[in-house]
Amino acid sequence: MRDTPLSLAERIGWGALGLAALLGTWTLLTSSGLVPRPFLPSPGDVLGRMIELMSAPFAGATLPQHLASSFQRYAYGVLLAALIGVPLGLLMGWFRWLDDIVTPLFDALRFIAPIAWVPFAALWFGTGIGGPVLIIFAGAFPPCLINAYRGARFVEPRLIEAARMLGTGNLRTILEILLPAATPSIVAGLRVAAGLGWQSLVGAELIVAAAGVGFMMVQAQANVATPTVMAGMVAIGIVGMLIDIALRQGEAWLRRRRGLEA
Amino acid sequence: MGSIRFDKVDKVFGPRTGGVKALDSIDLEIAEKEFVAIVGPSGCGKTTCLRMVAGFEAPSAGVVSVNGKPVTAPGPDRAVVFQQFALFPWKTVRENIDLGLRNKGLAKPERDERIAGALKLMNLESHADAFPHQLSGGMQQRVAIARAYVLDPEVLLMDEPFGALDAQTRVVMQEELVRLARVNPRTVLFITHAVEEAVYLADRVAVMTRRPGRIKEILDIRSVREAENWDRHQKIEDVMDLESFVHLRTHIWKSLREEKGAHGV
Amino acid sequence: MIGRRGLAGLTSVAAALLLWFVVTTLTGLVSPGRFPSPAEFWQSLVQIATRGYAGAPLLSHAVQSLKLVLFGFAVAVATGVPLGLWMGWSRRAEAAINPVFLLIRPIPPLAWIPLAILWLGLGDAAKIMVIWFAAFVPSVINAFAGVRAIDRPMIEAARMLGTPRWRLVREVIAPAASPMIFTGLRLSLQASWTTLVAAELVGALLGIGFVLNVAQQDIYPGMILVGMVTVGLLGWATTWLLAMAEQRALAWNMAARD
Question: Residue A174: how many CB atoms within 10 A of its CB?
């Protein structure tokens, strides 16, 4: 079946081959003239443009400035989602009546893609910061809520029984039993929320922003400035990856501290 | 204080009609400070009996009462030691033991004093600030017992507490429990499927039938133990060699075997 | 018959609807410029369903969006699942393809929209391309994970019985990985809808996203709400269909779960 695991050297070798194939095909397509330059800039073009954008402004600001704007809204949206979603999820996991009330409403709204809130966001906030924050919130909120809820609901029953046996009151149970028990789930949810939030951000900025990387890309597209568009994509990808790595590290650190990993 | 009483208790799981009848008309009286063990085949409902005294389940018919009052909810007056320990993995040993005391509203100095006593009693002093996952199974169960003991409960409910431990640790824990029970007795309801454990530890042993569980018979161990002075032997293996011990054990084995044999399992 | 939970659910929804009515029509707390009242919602719905809006009736818009989602989803799944299975099966394939994946993955699917428009214009092709990017990744990842999670002994037993490669894939590997594959499908469908709506919002001439866009520019909250509700309903319907397919395909798994 699955061939035996590869050695590190073999892995690197095959990986390099794959990457080379990708980059090679790309460069070949552009330099051979098969695909016109405005259509598909070469890897070199894109890299060069990225470096240029670090200092030369486009659509009102340099790349780092756009990224900063984007990140700010992103942070607000995700934080808001976490601050509301996690406690609500925990409470829903503990108080069955709250679950019964909120879940149907949540289920009803669940199928509306966060991006569909853009028109209302535009209507209510114009191109202000509220618009993207709303959409990021819409994207990041469900995982925060669901994971906190699941974490609390599915705590090992014995632990709840032990807590009850020890005479633990509601508030203390939520803070000292449910919350720690649900933490792995909550953190996993935050990671997903961060990812979804970043994606929602891009979508929002494509439509309702006056700054930010998404906005920059839309302006570039309108001006057929393909290298700038692709530079924006790369920048977004890199930041998204960094965010994910940072959160994974945080997750691992937390697990070590809690003693769930040696 | 700390008497337990089962009064014509039935327990049906699932719908009223067509559900599984786990217990059938259980009558049992446990006097205060008495150590009673319930043995029986798997699924006979012995754990359910304990859970009703603990307040995790309610009887479908009949009454389960402690000190004459029916049980309505769990609480620290009926402390439970679970088979799977049920320690809080994110709390240290000390913090695990502390929770019940904090719920009682005790002041820090008193809590610290009680915890120190419990740690000493269960030989956990050097592990006070460790996390459960750093301890062996036997140590974790000691923490669970300490957590229960520190509440000074009238009733101690132990649900196959040594079931998850290896054989050697099990023996050590049994000897420790006997030591504790003699020195600081309280009402204990002890569930196990290990007959020797029951005979070694208990004052009386109740044998249950196969499901639906009924009390088949109750043996008085204490009178035999005192008459034959089992306590003169420190080691379990010496006690288990005694003729009086073997006699009781074999009697219960036979009784249990009838339960299995009658239904071909 | 409905049960306590169902009743509580209906009550919640009913209460929310009532609140909507009160806040908009009755008290005017929320002005019509910001959020439509139930009456305005209804009027907009009637308008687009009968006379049409943004160039076509509701049905045409819905069909357009649905068409693109289903097509994009199908293509993504048809390419993603086999690739994932292959990567799960062959360590070499995984080693070669994974780095490429790691490069492409962090780029949010929606970020491909401007590029797609540059390459393919405002037509269907651009939307399908972006949907493909979005829905492709979860399918691959979950198919891959599904294969990796298969018990070794199962494969060994199949080989011992002399199962040829193609039969092994079709009758052993694919079924064994199918629970995870379906998880991937669910995620792919979600991604498809999100991407489609976004793509239509940015540049389209037909479709629900386009309706949303025009309604926003016309400052027509009633129609915006109609668009959102339609998206929600279509999303729910397609998810339900997928769930039915999943239940059918995984019937063996459900039984084993009891």
Answer: 19
As a whole number of angstroms, the distance between CA B51 and CA B70 comes to 14
pLDDT at A199: 86
Size of interface A-C (CB pairs under 8 A): 186
DSSP code, position A141: H
Tokens of C30: 């929320």
Q: In this structure, are strands B215-220 and B204-208 parallel, antiparallel, or unpaired?
A: antiparallel
Question: How far, in Å, CA of C175 to CA of A191, rounded?
Answer: 30
Is B249's pLDDT higher than 80?
yes
Distance CA C82, CA C72 (A): 16
Cβ–Cβ contact C84 with A under 8 A: no
pLDDT digits (tens, 9 = 90+) for A68-96: 989 999 999 999 999 999 999 999 999 98
With CA atoms as reference, the chain C residue closest to A240 would be C106
Residue C257, min C-alpha distance to chain A (Å): 18
Reported as type and span, the H/E element at residue A50 is helix A43-55
Q: Do A162 and B88 touch (CB under 8 A)?
A: yes
Question: CB-CB: which of A14, A124, A218 is closest to C34?
Answer: A124
Which chains does B contact via 3+ CB–CB distances below 8 A? Answer: A
Check: CB of residue B91 under 8 Å from CB of residue A163.
no
Rg (CA), chain C: 23
Nearest C-alpha in B relative to A159: B86
> Which of C2, C188, C200, C216 to probe the A interface (max A CBs under 10 A)?
C216
Q: Is A169 on the interface with B (CB under 8 A)?
A: yes
CA triple B233-B236-B242, angle to 5 deg: 65
User: Using an 8 Å Cβ cutoff, are B218 and B206 in contact?
Assistant: yes
More confident residue, B38 or C152: B38
Instruction: For residue B40, count CB atoms less than 10 angstroms from its CB and return exposed for 0-12, middle for 13-18, buried for 19 or more.
Output: buried
Q: Cα distance from A136 to chain C (closest Cα, Å)?
A: 13
Residues of chain A neighbouring C242 (CB-CB closer than 8 A): none
Task: Give A174 to chain C, closest Cα distance, Å.
Answer: 23
Rounded CA gap, B10 and B23, in Å?
A: 5
Do the Cβ atoms of A138 and A114 come closer than 8 Å? yes
ipTM summary value:
0.81
Question: A52: which residues sit within 8 A by CB, 6+ positions away?
Answer: none
Identify the bridge partners of residue B187 per DSSP, sorted by sequence position. Answer: B155
pLDDT of residue A259: 62
The span from the CA of A75 to the CA of A37, in Å, is 37
Q: Are A11 and C95 a contacting pair, CB within 8 Å? A: yes
Tokens 């009736």 correspond to what residue?
A: C57
Alpha-carbon gap: A166 to the closest alpha carbon of chain C (Å):
31
Residues pairing with B206 in the sheet: B38, B218
Instruction: Tell me the β-bridge partners of B155.
Output: B78, B187
DSSP string, C33-49: TTS--HHHHHHHHHIII
Report in angstroms the alpha-carbon separations of C65 from A33, B252, C202, C206, C245: 36, 74, 14, 8, 21
Prior bond to A119 cis, omega within 30? no
Mutate one of A111, A125, A244 to test the C interface: name it (highest C CB count within 10 A). A111
